[in-house]
Here is the input.
Amino acid sequence: MTVGGGAAGAPQALDPKKIRIYGLVGSVIGIYLAWILNSVTGTNIFSFVGALAALFGVVLGANAVRRVCAYGIGTGVPSIGMLALGMGVVASLFGLNLAEQLGVGVLGVIIALVYSVVFGYVIGLIANRVMGFNIPIMEEGLFDLSGAGTMAILGWSFAISGSLAYADIVKDVFNTGFLAIIFICGGLAILHPFNANLGPDEKQDRTLVNGVMVGGMATIATGICALMTLGFAAGMLEIVVGFAVWYYFYVWYFRLAKRDASAVVGTGLLPPSAL
Here is the structure.
């Protein structure tokens, strides 16, 4: 099995089932770890861990996009990324609110995840059976995308609010309009990697590294938001962590781009204009 991609089925070296497990379980553990650390220390300084947890969802989402969109849905690449975050918003609100209504607020992340993957699978069934997309992995892909979008929304929402309480997230993320930043930046982290790397030389590792790189930029953006909701210390720490993630994976991505290029040459200065 190669790391190549770009044709139907998107050949990959990393098994999508393993990426699904790592993506969903890693993001859930990361969000709860952030919540536990904040609770134990009585601070909001560890809220940035929620942003790191969101990156697990980003990798899952980026891999799902490349698998589904490799079947040639063209302009559907941006659309499916936005769909992932849209399903994530609905599932996040539903899960957190239902958990509080049932008196088990701490289980909101789990309820949101379960709802999201069922929701995504049903949307995949409608896309294939009703709308006639006829993509063999559509149900599985939207299962992954909905779960990934939900984990990204919850992880970055925690990074801004420092809380898993429904009321706190609505107050600090939704009512402030910061959800729009999460939606756009998170959507880019999931949809942009395949869009940026598609073609006959698309490689799974390069695409997924690109996703984490953009996820680092999204973390910087949510860190700026956290300056206004969590204070200077927590916000600046998140910005620094986001910059570190972006820089590390940018260097890694650049190295992979050079590896896959047919040639790397210096073009020198642009020729003088004839005008």
Residues 232-260 form the longest helix (29 residues). The chain has one domain: 16-259.
